[in-house]
Write a structure and sequence with these properties.
single chain, N-terminal domain of TfIIb, four-stranded antiparallel sheet, 11 helices, 25% strand
Length: 323
C-alpha cells in the first residue's frame, strides 16, 4: 500500500481518536467509514477534519499538529513554543474540545453525512451521493448490507435505483455501496452487450439482452412504485435483461451505462455533482449514434459518451475541462 495513503489514513484515524475521544459513538462512526475500496470517501473525511482545524486559532492549531500529528513530545513542543509542558497540555486539551465543537456545530451538516452507520436502514435517509440527473439534491437511501440491498432515489426528480445483489453484501457505507454497484454494473452490462447474452443474476440461466421501452418490459420485471416517470418519457430504450424462470430482472438506462464506465466513474470522483443533459441522436462513424452528456455543477467540465444506437456499444468518450 502506498506510503502516502497510509500516512493520510493514519492521520484521519488520529483525528477521530484524538478529537472525538469524549464521544465514543462519534469515534465509532468515523472509523467504520474507512473502506479501502473507496479512497475518495476517506479523502473527503480528511478534508472535512482539516477544514475544522483551519477554523481554530493558529496557536491552538499549532499545538494540536505538533503534538498529535507530528507526535512530538510535550517537552519538545513546550521548548519550541517557549512555554511549560503543563501549559502545552492545557492548550492541547482545550484545542481538542474546540475542534470537537467546530465539528458538531459549524460543520454539523457535513459531519452528519458520515454518521450513516446503521447496518440496515428501513427508512429513507440522506446519503453523501448526489442525483446525477439534476445534480441539485442528495439522494435518499435504504440499505441492507446483509442481503445486498440498496435503494436510492432523488427526492425531487423521481430518479430511482433498486438493487439486490450478492456483490453488495457486507458493504455498509453508501459511497462504498455505490462504488461496488457501479463496477458490477459495468462488468455485467458490458459483458451482456458484447456477447448478446449473460447469466441471470439469480438462477444463472443464460439470458438474451433486450433493448426496449418501459411499456415493453414484462410487468413482473418492475415494481410499479419503483418505475421513475422519466423512464417513461425518455426517447431512448433501456437495456433489459429479464428471466421468466425466476422473475429476476436487470434494467438500466443509457446514461447509467455511461456513468458506470471506468471513465464515467473517474469523472464522478472528480466532480460528484453532475447533471444529465438531453441525449442527442446523430451520425457517427457512418452509423446512427446517441450522445449522452453530463456537465459538472461546480466546475467547467463535461463528460460525453457516444453510443451506437442499435447495439449501445461505445463509439467514443470525450472529456472537456477535466484536470
Amino acid at each position: 500500500m502506498p506510503k502516502k495513503f497510509e500516512e493520510d489514513r493514519s492521520r484521519s484515524i488520529f483525528f477521530v481518536h484524538s478529537f472525538c475521544n469524549t464521544t465514543p459513538k462519534a469515534a465509532h462512526i468515523f472509523v467504520d467509514e474507512f473502506d479501502l475500496e473507496v479512497e475518495l470517501e476517506r479523502k473527503e473525511l480528511v478534508e472535512l477534519l482539516e477544514r475544522a482545524m483551519t477554523l481554530l486559532p493558529e496557536e491552538t492549531r499549532t499545538v494540536l499538529i505538533k503534538r498529535d500529528v507530528e507526535d512530538s513530545p510535550l517537552s519538545q513542543v513546550a521548548a519550541q513554543l517557549g512555554t511549560t509542558t503543563s501549559a502545552v497540555a492545557m492548550r492541547l486539551q482545550r484545542g481538542k474540545l474546540a475542534l470537537k465543537r467546530r465539528l458538531t456545530t459549524t460543520l454539523q451538516q457535513e459531519l452528519a453525512l458520515y454518521a450513516l452507520q446503521a447496518s440496515t436502514s428501513d427508512v429513507w435517509e440522506e446519503t453523501p451521493l448526489w442525483c446525477s440527473l439534476c445534480g441539485q439534491h442528495r439522494l435518499r437511501g435504504k440499505r441492507n448490507p446483509g442481503e445486498g440491498k440498496l435503494l436510492l432515489k432523488c427526492p425531487v426528480c423521481d430518479v430511482w435505483s433498486v438493487n439486490h445483489l450478492p456483490a453488495l453484501q457486507g458493504v455498509k457505507g453508501y459511497k462504498p455501496l455505490y462504488t461496488r454497484l457501479a463496477a458490477w454494473c459495468n462488468d455485467y452490462y458490458q459483458t451482456a452487450l458484447n456477447n448478446g447474452r449473460v447469466p441471470c443474476t439469480k438462477c444463472g440461466r443464460m439470458l438474451p439482452v433486450n433493448f426496449c421501452f418501459v411499456e415493453e418490459i414484462p410487468p413482473w420485471a418492475w415494481q410499479k412504485e419503483w418505475v421513475p416517470s422519466w423512464y417513461r418519457e425518455t426517447q431512448d430504450r433501456l437495456v433489459s435483461i429479464t428471466c421468466p424462470a425466476c422473475h429476476s430482472a436487470c434494467n438500466t438506462p443509457l446514461d447509467s451505462l455511461a456513468l458506470t464506465l471506468p471513465e464515467g466513474r473517474s469523472f464522478l470522483q472528480g466532480y460528484p455533482r453532475v447533471r444529465t443533459l438531453p441525449s442527442q441522436h446523430v451520425e457517427a462513424q457512418g452509423r446512427e449514434a446517441i450522445i449522452t452528456r453530463f456537465e459538472s455543477i461546480t466546475a467547467n467540465a463535461t463528460f460525453t459518451v457516444v453510443f451506437d444506437a442499435d447495439t449501445y456499444r461505445v463509439l467514443g468518450i470525450f472529456r472537456e475541462g477535466v484536470a
